[in-house]
Structures are given as structure tokens and as C-alpha cells.
Amino acid sequence: MSHNSFGHLFRVTTFGESHGPAIGAVVDGCPPRLTFTRDDVQAALDRRRPGQSRFTTQRKEPDQVEILSGVLEASDGTLTTTGTPIGLLIRNVDQRSKDYSNIAGSYRPGHADFTYDAKYGVRDHRGGGRSSARETACRVAAGAIAKLVIPEITIRGALVAMGSIAIDRSRWDWEEVARNPFFCPDPIAAREMEGYLDGVRKSGSSVGAVIEVVAENAPAGLGAPIYGKLDSDLAAAMMSINAVKGVEIGAGMGAALLTGEQNADEIRMGADGRPVFLSNNAGGILGGISTGQPVVARFAVKPTSSILTPRRSIDTSGQEVEVSTRGRHDPCVGIRAVPVGEAMMALVLADHVVRHRGQIG
Amino acid sequence: MSHNSFGHLFRVTTFGESHGPAIGAVVDGCPPRLTFTRDDVQAALDRRRPGQSRFTTQRKEPDQVEILSGVLEASDGTLTTTGTPIGLLIRNVDQRSKDYSNIAGSYRPGHADFTYDAKYGVRDHRGGGRSSARETACRVAAGAIAKLVIPEITIRGALVAMGSIAIDRSRWDWEEVARNPFFCPDPIAAREMEGYLDGVRKSGSSVGAVIEVVAENAPAGLGAPIYGKLDSDLAAAMMSINAVKGVEIGAGMGAALLTGEQNADEIRMGADGRPVFLSNNAGGILGGISTGQPVVARFAVKPTSSILTPRRSIDTSGQEVEVSTRGRHDPCVGIRAVPVGEAMMALVLADHVVRHRGQIG
Amino acid sequence: MSHNSFGHLFRVTTFGESHGPAIGAVVDGCPPRLTFTRDDVQAALDRRRPGQSRFTTQRKEPDQVEILSGVLEASDGTLTTTGTPIGLLIRNVDQRSKDYSNIAGSYRPGHADFTYDAKYGVRDHRGGGRSSARETACRVAAGAIAKLVIPEITIRGALVAMGSIAIDRSRWDWEEVARNPFFCPDPIAAREMEGYLDGVRKSGSSVGAVIEVVAENAPAGLGAPIYGKLDSDLAAAMMSINAVKGVEIGAGMGAALLTGEQNADEIRMGADGRPVFLSNNAGGILGGISTGQPVVARFAVKPTSSILTPRRSIDTSGQEVEVSTRGRHDPCVGIRAVPVGEAMMALVLADHVVRHRGQIG
Amino acid sequence: MSHNSFGHLFRVTTFGESHGPAIGAVVDGCPPRLTFTRDDVQAALDRRRPGQSRFTTQRKEPDQVEILSGVLEASDGTLTTTGTPIGLLIRNVDQRSKDYSNIAGSYRPGHADFTYDAKYGVRDHRGGGRSSARETACRVAAGAIAKLVIPEITIRGALVAMGSIAIDRSRWDWEEVARNPFFCPDPIAAREMEGYLDGVRKSGSSVGAVIEVVAENAPAGLGAPIYGKLDSDLAAAMMSINAVKGVEIGAGMGAALLTGEQNADEIRMGADGRPVFLSNNAGGILGGISTGQPVVARFAVKPTSSILTPRRSIDTSGQEVEVSTRGRHDPCVGIRAVPVGEAMMALVLADHVVRHRGQIG
Lengths: 361, 361, 361, 361
Known about the structure:
Four copies of one chain form a homotetramer. By secondary structure, chain A is α+β, with helices and mostly antiparallel strands. The first copy, chain A, has seven helices and 19 strands.
């Protein structure tokens, strides 16, 4: 019940509000003698950064990361991990708190305003405070460290549906993901999304999305029985991302529609003398433990709750009000959830790999 | 990374294999001075017990629970919790180990045989050993204790889809759940399922299902920000159940299809001076914290992997083989997942309530 | 804050009261493919068992352990760990509850009666309930499993002082420990203790003791910085044993009397090309991490609080009373703490070794 | 096994090395709606700060704390906790790394140099890196937050022995603690220590000390049975402080010398209708749970390992060398351990109080 820590042995603790002085993370349990540069972490942050297209919030956050501890710096800037906790700091820069003054006393529908007040009796209303997706910058920075632990594993995410527009999986092209502002692997769907989202944005509305994250080359044997299942940890990880309402592994909710014959992934021996699964309904996990197949997780992000259309709500004194949000927001918060999903996959796998290999690595 | 423990303050540790001498659970962190009887726990186990209809495995397990510690017994059999750990023991009785002799050396597709060997290099093959759904009896027994902690919260589960047969929500009737062997709340769908599953069973096949669990009257304020989110814990809980491949909260994966206007649950003041939400797409959780609305979780159970149809696989020496399972099995393991889902909901809520209220209760 | 679990990766959960039906333990995180027999565990329990000399309580507990899970049994009774949790059960047999009826309503000075009531508002008064040293049988059984994980490490404990009788360290002989009823390594001190304790016992009084536990051949590098220090874990472990009031590592409290020159253990290179420390004031731990020297922990056990001499106290209604204890008790509960201290050392080291090596071992 | 986190519900994570850019802490689980100012935290840091007398290291560290998150700031600078994690940052200023260049390749006896290399294969040698007592500034800052949670409890520490000079307890005066540079409660002993430590300092030697920390007005009922004992947590807490080799509760190691009659604290009813203990050998804890008496913990700090006298050691290549330390150091590191011990007591009690009361407070 560590509210702000994630992971067991490779463990990340984050802090910071949307409109406070800074946000940050402490990465604990990172094995020693891994090398990287500050740019590796910065590049991951840049990929998630808002304001890069007209489809994400126009908040201008440079999100410059400072690495405060846990590394030895060589004269060329190369950093070597020492096994001690890595402190990461990102100063908040573009905090237009006044944008939020009109909603200080109201509960925005779909937001955590009501529940934070119910729980704590006090709340930093500026930009959602701690409940802001701004916290996910810390996850992405920590995920960049996690990837150092598992260099052999390739982790990639993609947006596979936006509102009613779903990709055609036969057109899946990982290269395409970097070519459009949606992280969409299907170029035709991406073009459709562009027009669609422009309409959503101009009308002050918002729309949901589905993200898929795939980890290739994870070894068999990661995870554990019962409550330490790899899929159980992935479900917790993905559901902890802001606005996520559903998580699937492999065939996911659709597994309910299959027969036993259709579902069970058959096994043959490959030419290289290693087992080959003929399908991957399991999403690379059986009994909570990785099979060596790609680990496939999917999650649904609800539409951004901040919209221009007035919605009925109440204020903190119990008066009925109407709320509309005029701040800068993403019309589809699911887009920027793609690098966050990748980061969470990296955090979960790094944690299990450290357990599997031992601390020394 | 406690593989066999679940929860934080209200915490359950289970042990035991399908075909060993016994299974059991230790319930730690249960508040003192709660009263119950052994029959309360037994009744919960009886609801999950196999062999009660032709649609569940014919294994005959009386599943008699013994309460070993953590209670004071009055002369009339009433038990009072003392705050110390409650040890629960269930002896295994009907262990036909010979049924499994033919698959000792093979990896059954869809089962954890391959992954347990990959991880541990050794495996109790009898009935799936630790990966057997038999472990869920411990969850149900522990869930009965958890319910003592939260008497004001009503937790009910239902099977809402079996294969391609989905219920009609306008016919939802909680009373109906106890009247058919499927825990199905829609009497017309239940009748359909009966014929459908008979066919599946006779053909030696199997089919998946979707379960929904609803907790009514949970207070607002349960849960926590970021990684201690109530929905994150629920996702981990439900995904830890055998054969589950997807978890949804409220609108779930379908949230991706909604617009911001459709999704955000509006709020009005009720006649009793308390906030009323006009819809529940959030499934009772905003920002990871309960709203006071019903908490709604849904999960998909894949079809039983043990089927009569031979499937291609390999054996432990890497030889290609065909495997079919002749043991006694459920044609739809999702049915018995209903009480298990209820138990997991109870465990998660009891854990958060203990945190909320403090230990003394 | 798991009240009844100890350890992180190699983790033990215990349950059971002194006078309930049974006590038991669940050992989670034990690596797979370790072999042992039930007799290995039983032998450890027999060493701690009461009633073996006139110097320990005359309660007759056979302490027969049943191994319920987590192992595969060969036809010759050899058990192989499977990596799944090992359930251990010990039935209580000799429960003379009536011995305690006279103190049901009173708080025995030095016992946990008052504090359990203050905390829980209810209490199993029979034999101290959960606060009874009977729980330590579970630690000893679990410790026998822990030793399987670290076969290269030799763990031995000894009683080094009883009341005012301290051993002469120049006479330390590990062989002697098994030859007297006190686990005392100094034969001359042991003889003195015999007469001394006979007097204590006959007068219905009790006396304290100091125990030393030494682990030889632990590798350098176990432990971790700051809050994961090996000595911090050992301090928690030893202080968790009933009646312990002080814990020392190496020079212990006496380190305060040393100068920097006296205290710092100098290092030379040994003939085998490995570092040799010229002294061991550090008790084998520097900065929380093992040096490769013997790990040395010491702890003080207060005198048994159950004595014949009447002591002033109050009852549960706040009336002033006098309490004397007529049940069967150890005149020096420190004696039986020796195997318990060894078990706790084994649990701590096994936990750190599993972390160091990884799960697979 | 969180190496850099302490506590369960009220939980502190620290990061940072002696000679890196900064050190810091994240305080998680702090209840909401507590008010304080930055000066409250700064004052605690100032009390621990080095360079305030000739008896502590002359390193000049202003130790200015920045509060990054978890609070709402009023216009008058008053901070109110929001229940979200409180990020604390302290920049390192006076980092004379060159002082350490001569010992980069050598293992200083008594320091963690050898063990960090054994564990991690890499080490920040500057000022001890992560093993430096500089980390304790984070504990003190976090401890200041912890004290907000338990305003009714008075926590005070004192140095009760330095080398062979022990205080006379009959002269104990809490007021005196602030009047001498040693936190010594006995004015006569304090004067003796002054001359003594001057000699030690001038000779380039060092000396150990014993610290006692007392918490008054803690309620009965804090702590838990078995492995969640309050004294077990305190032992872990105190032993985790740099250079600590022994921890005592109440009568401590001396409990071994007592008889049952002497040891058991008798109870009478006080004039106010509340129980009164007639002595406090238990140190305020019975069966791991607080009695309501003062909670008394004591710990021994070994002499500073950095001394001018050359000591025999080896270098990282296994060559035999002699090492002496010329950096700025405390002749008695135990002095500055007093506020650290108080902070650890506050952290443990706040953690248990949060558990006792529930999160909402």
C-alpha cells in the first residue's frame, strides 16, 4: 500500500504536483555498472512531451531532467549506475495557475476532484494537482532507466484505436508509429484519425483510445504463481495510468468468446531447437509466468474529462453548478499514454528480471 | 513481490497444491472483535465447490474448512476474532493422481506446465499443482473473513457472458443468480446457456466467460493516488485469478469509444443532501479513489485449457507430441470464477477499509 | 507492517496461539530443487522442544511437524522443493488451559496481557495466546528450511551469559554446546550455571541470559545500504524474539568505549590471495553489507516474567491485585532462545542470499 | 527489502551521495491537513548541521531544504499537507572531492569501501558516497515531518556516554542538552567530555558514544505482535543509522542480569484512574506493543573510522597499503547521531500511529 511507489526490487517512487515547483522520481534497486547518458532519459521525456502537435495540450513544458544521484559521471558525460538510488528531478515551468481559478470550488465531472476531497478534505486544485497526468513524466524518465536493465528486450507501444476508428492489423507497421502524431502503426487509420480528431478538438470535445504495448524477446520464466503473476503486475501497472478503464493480456476480453480449441496456443519445436508457439492468445504469459513469446498488453483510455461543453456537477459546498474546462488540454489523452504504457511495461519487466537474475546482474 | 500473499494491511497468504495433503490460508491484519461461525466460511466454500451440477468438474471435494487460530470460541460455537492471524486449513480428499500420469512429461497447451518448468526446473504435474484453480478455495474462505470487516458493503457477482451468449442487461435480476447453475442474472440467457454448455461439454470442448462483480455501499474515499489506486488493486486482484485475460472497471474497454460528453458522469444533489451521480461509467472510481457509487469490475475468463480434442505440443525432452486431457474438468471454468471474483473484491475492499479506518476498527 | 510475516523474498508467515488447535508457518520464496527430509525439520524442532531437562518448562509438546505443500515426495521420503510455498503445521497437544484460569482477568507484570488488551480489546489469555514463545517453534521449523538455501554457511548459537555468570571466551568450545542443557560453550561456566539455575528454579524465580549467534562462511556482499542493512535486518529479527531487550553486532554496545584505532578492523592479504581482517569488531558487517568475516549477533533475553513471587498489578476492571504464576515455565527462557536465534540468523541470511543470487538459484 | 525506504504507511525514501549534486527525501503517507512552515524543517536540519563547534566536521553545509511537493502554501508561508508525497531537496554545496583522491583506490578500515565494492563492483568513493552520514540529513528533515503527525508525543535524545565517560543519571537535566555541544544531559559530564574530546581531536583519533532517545506520552497500543513489534521496528531503525553497533530497549543488555522479580514492572492504579507502572525496565513496550510509559531506546555508535593514525589495509587491486584519513571529520560521530536518533524514533512512531488511527487522521 505504497501509494507513490511502484515495483518490488526495481522500485520507483514519484512525487510532485502539476503546478508545484517540481516533479521527480527516485529509482531504487537499479543494478550497478549500467551505462547511459542524460540524453537517453531526456529523449524518452521528449517523446511524451506535450505541445508537439496540435493534438496535444499547448502547455509548454521543456521537461528538462536533472540526475541527482546514483551515478558516476565520466568526463565525456557517460553515467554509470552505482546501485544506489537514482534521483530524477523535473522542474515545472509553464504553470498557468489562473486557468484553474474558476474551478477551484467545483468538482469537474470525470476528474478526481470530488474523490480527493472526499479522501483528504483538502486538494491542490491547480491542474488536478497530484492526479494530473503530469506525474507520468516521472514514469517515462524512470522507464528509461528500466530499459537499461533489460537491453535485450524490445518494448514498443502503439495506438490501435481512437474513438470508433480502429486500425487494420494487417497494415501494422512499427516504422509508421514515429511518422504520425498518434503513435498509430496503420498509416491509413492514422490519416483518418487526423481529420477525426481535428473535428473533436475544434468542437471542444474529447475521445478515448486503445493502446497496445508489446515486449519482444523477454525470456521464459519471468513472473510467479498466484499473486505475483506477471499479468497481475501488468494489470496493476496499466490500470494505474491516468484515465485507464480496462486492461487486456493477449486475447483479452475476447478470450471469453473462444473455445478451448481456438484459445490454447499449440507448441512445436523450431529449427533452432527452441519451442515455437503457433499462436499467442496467451499474450506471452501462462499461469502468470512468461513463455518467451511476445508479452502483449492492451489498455483503454477514457476520453479527456476536460471539455468545453458545460456539464452538470456540484461545488464543494454542495450547490449544483455547471462546469466547463477552458484550460489547455489534450483532445485525446490516449495519444500521450503510448510512451507511458511502454514505460510501465519496462518497469514491470525490469522488476521481474532483477528478481530472476539477482541483484548483481 | 510476495508471490503467495495478497493485500497490504488486510493480507492473505495461501499455500497448497491440487493434489498434496492440504491447502490453506493465513489471514493477517483482520481487526479484532468481529464475530462469525465456522458455517459462515463453510457456506462460502460450498458456493464455489465443484460437482454441484453437471457443468462443473465431478471431482468430489467436501472442502471442509478448519479454523486453526486467531479466534476465541464461545460455548455456542461463535467465534470472535482477536486481531491475530487466522489460519484456515482445507484437506484435499479426492485426489485421483493417476488421471494425470499420462501428461506428466508433456506440456499441456494453455496450461502453466511449460512456464513452471521454465522457471523452476521442477513441477508438481498432478492437477496443475500450485497453478490449479483449487487454490481459489483459499481465496473464497479468506473472502468470507474479509466480508466480516465490511458488513455494510454488499458484494455480488454474476456471469454476464458465456462464449457468444451475452445477457440482456434490461433483464438483470440478482435473485436469478442463485436459481441457475451459472450465476447468471438473466433467466432467458441462463436457459440458452444450459443447452449451449451441454453441447460444449459433450463434445469435450470448453468455452470462456465474462464475470461482473458489483460492490454497493462502499464509502467514498477508499483507494489512493497513483500506484495505490483502488482500480489498480482490483485489476491486479482479478487478473490474478486463474485463466483471466482482461479486466475492466465501469465502462471498461468500451470507454475508448465514448466522447468526453458521454463518459463524464454528471453529479446532482440528492434529496437526502448527498451527491448523486447520473451515470457510472467510472465504475465508482475516479483518480483511483471510490466515489460512493457502486464499484463495478468485470473480467474475462478464457476457456478451460483441458479439452478432449488432441492439441499439438512438446514434451519435457523437446519431442513433439499431441496432448488431450481426460481428467475431470469444468467445460466453462468461468462459472466457478463468480464466487472467486466476489472474494477478490471483498479482499481488496477490506484491505482499503482497514487502511482508511485504522487497525482498531 | 506485516505483523506475522518476516523477510522480503524468502518470507515466512506464522500463525497460531499457545493453546489453540495448532500453530504453523508458510515459507514463501524458497528456491526450487533443494532436497531434504521431514526429519531435518523435526530435528531442529526437537532441539528447541521443552521438557528435555529440569531447566525448561515441563509442558510435554511432541511438536510433530507436518509438511503440507511446496514439495515433491520421492518413494524414499526425500522431499524436493518446487518453489511454491511450503506449509508447515504443528498440532498443539498438551494444553492445560485450566492452569491459566486464575489469571484470565489479571494483567501479569512483564507479560503482554495489558498491551494486547489495550490494542485489541480482546485477548486469548491461555498461555499468553499469540504472545507465547510457542510461536518460536514455527521460526525454528522455517529456519530449517532456510538453512537448505545456504548450505555453505555454518550457523551456530550459544548462551554466553546467564544472570551474572558470563562465560570465559578463552574456553569457548563449540562441541561443548551440545553437552550441557544450556547451549553453553564454556564447560566450567556451564557447571556453575547448573547449580545457580537450580536455586533460581526452586525459589520460583527466573533469570535473564545473553545469546550469541555466529554465521561463518557467509559471502561478502550480502546486505544493502541505508534501510536494507544486513545488521538492521538482524536487529529487527533478534528483537522480534520474545523477551529480547537488546541486540548487538560485533563489538556491540562496547564499541562506544573504543577509540578509532582500536575499533577499525585492519586488513591484510591472506596466503590464499583473499583479504583477511585482523579483528572483527564489525561483526562481519560494514556499511550494512557483509565483509566475508563471521557475522556475529548477540542478544539479551530478560528473565521469564512468570514467577511464583506475587507481584503487584491490576485486573481488567482496573482493580489492584497481586499476581503470581503457577503454570509450568522456564526459569531461564533464554536457554531455548538459542535455537530460535540460530533460526532467525538463517532466515535473514537466506533472504539476503536469495536476493543476491536471484530466484532461480 | 527496499534499500532506501523506511516505514510502512508513513514511509520515507531517500537518495543522494555525499558529493553528488544533491540529497533528498520523499515522505509518503503523511496525513493531510497538517500545518507547518519551511522553518520547522530547517530548524531540525540546523540542529544536526556540522561545523557548529570544534567537535564536529568543519565541512560547511548550509543544508537549505527545499519543499517540492505535497503541500499547499498560504500567502504567509504556512504549508498545509495534502496527503500526497512531500519531496524534500537539499543541495550539496561544500564538496571538496580532492580530499578523497588519495583514498580512491584504497579500502579505509572500518568504512564501507570494501563491502560496497564487493557488492556492486563500483563505488562513489568521494566522502563515502551513499554510505556517508550525510544521508542522515534526509532522515532529520523527514523526521520533522513525522513529528507533525504525533504532536502529542515528546521525543528527546541525549548523549549518555562518550568513550569511558558516562553520565550520572541522577544529574539528568533535559534543559542541559541544548547548553553544551554534545547533547549531554549531565552538565558535569559535559564539561569532562569537552577536555576529553579536545585531546581525542588533536591526536587525530576518535571515540564512540551511547545515545538515548525517549518518547513521552505515546499512547498504549502502538506496535503489533511477532514481526511487527514496535521494539523490532525501533531496533531496525536505530541499527540503520551509520556506525551503530548495538540497540537497547529499556533495561537493554542489562536485562540479562536481572531476576524476574527485579525485571517485571509492577502496576498500580493512579489517582487519575489510569494504570501506573512502578518502573520501566520494559522501556515502554511489552510483547511488542506500547504500554503508555515512555518509550526508551538506546544505541551505541562506534568511533569515527576516519582517523589520522595510519591503519593497515589493502587497495582495490589487492596490494597491502596503509591508510590514514585527512578529510574533515567528526572526532565523535555519535554527537550528531542524537538528532538522527530522535528522527528515527519519530519516523517509527508516526508510522505506527498512522496505522493505529487510519489514514484520515
